[in-house]
Amino acid sequence: MTAIVLDVRQVHAKYGKREVLSGVSLQAPAGEWFCLLGPNGVGKSTLLRCIGGALAPTSGDLLIAGHSIIAEPLAAKRHLGYACAPEQLPGLLTGRQCLEVYAQAKGLQALDDAVLTLAVELRLDGHLDGFVDTYSLGTRQKLCILLALLGEPALIVLDEAFNGLDPASALLVKHHLQQRLSGGRCAVLLATHSLDIVEHYADKAALLIEGRIVREWNESEIAAYRVQGDSAMETALAAAYG
Fold this sequence. Notes:
Largest sheet: 6 strands, mixed
Shape: globular
Number of domains: 1
Helix content: 25-40%
Distance between the termini: 36 Å
CATH superfamily: P-loop containing nucleotide triphosphate hydrolases
Order of helices and strands: EEEHEEHEHHHEHEHEEHH
Radius of gyration: 18 Å
Number of strands: 10
Number of helices: 9
Mean pLDDT: 93
């Protein structure tokens, strides 16, 4: 059986008195690209923050490679690659220093060769010794993705990670993720508004509305949309929005 890398179990979360997540459950096994869809403000980023351990849920549990992010945060985070938002990067560090700090936090003796190779392919290597506060949005986004890939994480979590990337760079990242997935090395959870990514790359997708998963699409359903044409997934999503 394929190992379940991400297991979200009936998660509730609040900001103050306002409940943002209301019993969210989902699973992602190794080798699966899972896309989380939904309009702004419905709880996608909140769910990702709970998975990353930045926000404690009010109830429920979240397991990464079998380890609870609540009860075993250090063990869970050893298997997690989380791409922070570009604006959260430390502006007074260089890109290389960011990579080195992340690597040390994960107990790595050196930066991953695969990550450094991807940096070259993304033409980021020439920026690594510059300070992050001089980076464009796209350059910051590339660095966030590289940080999430360090240490061969079993779960890679990305929040609108392709925003700001030029088409060539976005394609390189997608192909890199596909290579990791095809080897069963990880699962990918991507929060996105891009139906193109869902139609062409996702193995599973779920629609989050007002803190609840209201619709899921499995691999065979997404494959059928690919055959039907570009508007098929958009039509299905519009129907799910109700």
